[in-house]
From TrEMBL:
InterPro entries: 7TM_GPCR_serpentine_rcpt_Srh. Keywords: Membrane, Transmembrane, Transmembrane helix. It comes from Bursaphelenchus xylophilus. It comes from the Eukaryota. The chain crosses the membrane at residues 67-86, 120-147, 168-198, 204-226. It holds the Pfam family 7TM_GPCR_Srh. Signal peptide: none annotated. This is G protein-coupled receptor.
Length: 263
């Protein structure tokens, strides 16, 4: 979770199982979490490009091209995250005191810190923001082209395949939008307010926690918007509910029978 003050950016570890590990493990845990999160928009952008080539250009990429394209993004983001990591400072008495003074937290979790006034941190922060805007710009462009193509084709041909493609594109758009809703917009808004002089460090702590909703939202989107998954999900849920109702009814009947014989 991120905590931002006027001078520092803190990345904390909330997992109770990691509170007593070595500083190196804290570094690895935070770097891994931040790194994997940064790869999500890049993955979505490449996948939108891939879908655009299939649906609009009738050009299906070989697996090698898909992995090479995404591999370039991975290498690039690896370099950016590595520069961030080089600038980090480990937990100290000063960093703990800084967090306690700027937030209402009673206890400080294990963390690393970065000074926001370091040139390399400023460059990496601006660069990361540009990369996110570029990735979502790619998604919006290709997404618009895909939707336009589906609408034009859907007006002439109505088929199960066309509807399936429409459902897949809907899921893609929603899954691509979730990082913006739960991470980019709240984080950007809080950062702007803090730079403007508002003391919202506690709000920043809460806003960054919304990132944990992304896997749940992505999973529910697949289960509810793709018909085949939705049918299985509904059937499984119905069986689970029916079995619990049956068990509850059986237990109630046994209790009534025992009380009747007891009387």
């Amino acid at each position: 979770t991120a905590i931002t003050t006027s001078k520092y950016l803190f990345e904390t570890v909330e997992n109770p199982l990691l509170q007593n590990v070595s500083p190196t493990m804290i570094d690895i845990s935070i770097l891994t979490a931040s790194y994997t999160t940064s790869l999500v928009p890049a993955n979505n952008a490449v996948h939108f490009w891939y879908r655009y080539c299939i649906l609009c250009k009738s050009n299906k990429w070989p697996k090698a091209r898909y992995f090479k394209t995404y591999g370039v993004c991975v290498v690039y983001m690896t370099l950016v995250c590595a520069m961030f990591f080089v600038c980090r400072d480990r937990q100290s008495e000063e960093s703990v005191r800084n967090i306690l003074e700027n937030t209402k937290l009673d206890h400080v979790q294990r963390h690393i810190s970065m000074r926001l006034d370091k040139p390399i941190v400023m460059i990496c922060t601006v660069h990361y923001g540009i990369m996110v805007l570029l990735e979502y710009g790619i998604m919006c462009f290709f997404g618009f082209k895909i939707i336009q193509k589906i609408r034009d084709h859907h007006s002439h041909v109505r088929s199960a395949t066309q509807q399936a493609q429409k459902n897949v594109v809907t899921v893609m758009i929603l899954q691509a939008a979730y990082p913006i809703v739960v991470s980019v917009i709240p984080g950007f808004g809080v950062a702007c307010l803090i730079v403007a002089g508002y003391h919202l460090e506690q709000v920043a702590y809460i806003a960054s926690a919304f990132l944990q909703l992304m896997p749940i939202l992505s999973t529910l989107t697949v289960l509810l918007f793709l018909p085949s998954y939705r049918r299985v999900f509904v059937q499984t849920t119905k069986l689970f509910v029916d079995s619990n109702v049956t068990i509850t009814t059986t237990m109630d009947e046994r209790k009534q029978t025992r009380s009747f014989h007891g009387v």
